Amino acid sequence: MKRYSLYMIVGLLSLTSCEDVFYMESTSVVVDNGERIEHPGDSLYSVMGILSQFQRLGERFVLLGELRGDLMSATNDAIKDLQDIADFSVTEGNIYADRMDYYSVINNCNFALERMDTSLVDYQTKVLLPEYAAIRGLRAWTYWHMALAFGEVRYIDKPLLTLESTLADYPVKGIEEMAELLIDDLTPYLGVRHLDYGSVDGIQTRTLFVPLLLFVADLHLFLNHYDQAAQLYYDYIRQHHLTISEGYSNDWNNNTRTDASMPHTSSYTGEMLFQMAYSSDARDYHPSLIHLAYNTVPSIVPASSFVEAMRQRTYFFTPVNGQSVGAYFLNDLRGQAFNRRGSNLPAAYGTFSFAGGQDIQLINKYNYAQATDGSGYDPLNEANAALNYTRQLPLLRTPHVYLRFAEALNRLGKPSLAFAVLKYGLTEETLADTLKVSPWELQGEAYTDFSWSHTYGDNRNVGTARRGLGRGVSFDKDNYTIGEQASLQDSITVVEEMILDEMAAETAFEGNRFFDLLRVSRHRGQWPAFAAKRVSLRLSDHESAQIRLEDDRSWWLRIE
Questions:
Q1: CB of 491 closer than 8 Å to CB of 441
Q2: Do 294 and 384 meet the contact criterion of CB atoms below 8 Å apart?
């Protein structure tokens, strides 16, 4: 077999080699021999080799995305590197401020892209084009998230043999310039078939590659290109018949709150569109998120301000097949549920009791994507009797798509249509109901057409708020509403706040919160003031923290 400048997977023999596909060990560059990649078998090794190095970015993606947001805090027991990120005081030597893992992925992508012969055809089909597009997507994702971490990057599109000594020779790109560049880089490949090698080690490999339509939509949304973003989100929704399923709703079983059904915990892995996957062998590399979060001595915990905000949300109870709200309670069940006796049912987080200790609030979400090795254990974690380790790290899920679609629609001057994503769900019936969606917001744009939903039986689409605020949310007329606003702009502002709250409830702790706050702040022309006001609430001395965070330089991992 030919060898290329890639982090090759040890033991990869074929598509059926199970956990070997997700095993990662090498951290050094293999010397390239200059040969072309001209066969699908060779391209498979190239792609899987890149994925093995890509895994290293997963834990960092989550921690940098959440510890710079308003939903997660670092504890006094966390290592200083994590505390410094959460306090926006990163110094030289912080392990999360090392760019080398990002550039290792990028360099290996560059080697593969340069060597791959996309002109090869089989009955007019360019056989290597899907692999080529997938690798460009992985490279683009890596560049973008390095930009979101550092605020700027050195852009390199050629393979380097001595990476460290040549970085300084390449131009620095700011975050906006990077977004524009990546849009131009990926747009020609939006119609290329998405790569899919089938199931390997229990993982659907189609979820290992960046959905280019959605990634480019995110870049347009960041740049306030709302029309382009809305169209791309809609195209993906329609092509894949994507829906917000009622089956992932947490509900009280009765109006006395004796018990609740909590299937929303399954949405973490059940709605994945893009993920990082890890070996089923506990001895291989895995992110340490479970150890950091679900521990008798945790390093990361839900921010108390977020927990309190979730407890103050109104829950609307309606019996099954009911047509009106039968009772009102407090608390969004996507965080945790409290029955009438005060006991809690954890969802994204919960209150836990351990022998000899006090009750402790822990992030529970990462446990829903774990594997367990009963013969092993974590010596620094008494919360788990066995060794629990991450097998899947969701990067993009169905609610991300719909909520960002709503974000774009709202900024296009369609607040009632955007709000329908939260409260009712986008269906032909919803859009035809003038009491739910203002008719003047529907001007014949392609992305406002949901008449096709009946064709695929997708009329089960429900509002995202239904999944944590109860079956009766759509029947409420007074509480969960836009309200009477003085102007269209005021309505847009109110709905944007509600979308941001829904993003927190639906996708908490998954690595997206910093990006969410960054985008919305930019929509308002209030970066970083808007984000600073929200994030400072979880920091000690809120007022001084807010002043400090109103300086753009505070947010990026730049070592002066």
A1: no
A2: yes
Dump the DSSP string for 304-363.
HHHHHHHHTSEEEE--TT-SS--EEEE--TTTEEE-TTS-EEESSEEEE--TTS--EEEE
What tokens were used for 549? 């965070």
Both tokens of residue 230?
């809305």
pLDDT at 36: 58
Indicate the number of domains in the chain. Answer: 3
Rounded Cα gap, residues 203 and 21, in angstroms: 10
Q: At residue 44, does pLDDT exceed 80?
A: no
Q: Let me know whether 402 and 545 are in one domain.
A: yes
Q: Which of 395, 424, 440 is the last residue of a domain?
A: 395
- Structure-block tokens of residue 418: 């955007």
105/120 Cα distance (integer angstroms): 25
Same domain, yes or no: 40 and 141:
yes
pLDDT tens, position by position, 100-135: 999 999 999 998 898 886 655 544 455 689 999 999
Same domain, 121 and 99: yes
Mean pLDDT, the chain, rounded, equals: 89
Helical axes 398-411 vs 226-240, angle rounded to 10°: 140
* 6 and 45 Cβ atoms separated by less than 8 Å: yes
Cα torsion 457, 463, 468, 471 to 10°: value is -70
Nearest to 49 by CA among 135, 162, 120, 154: 135
Give yes or no for a contact between 239 and 174, defined as CB atoms under 8 angstroms apart: no
Rounded to the nearest 10 degrees, how much is the dihedral formed by the CA atoms of 29, 35, 37, 38? -170
Task: Report d(CA 223, CA 219) in Å as an integer.
Answer: 6
CA dist., res. 151 & res. 153, Å (int): 7
Q: Which domain holds residue 454?
A: 226-248+397-555
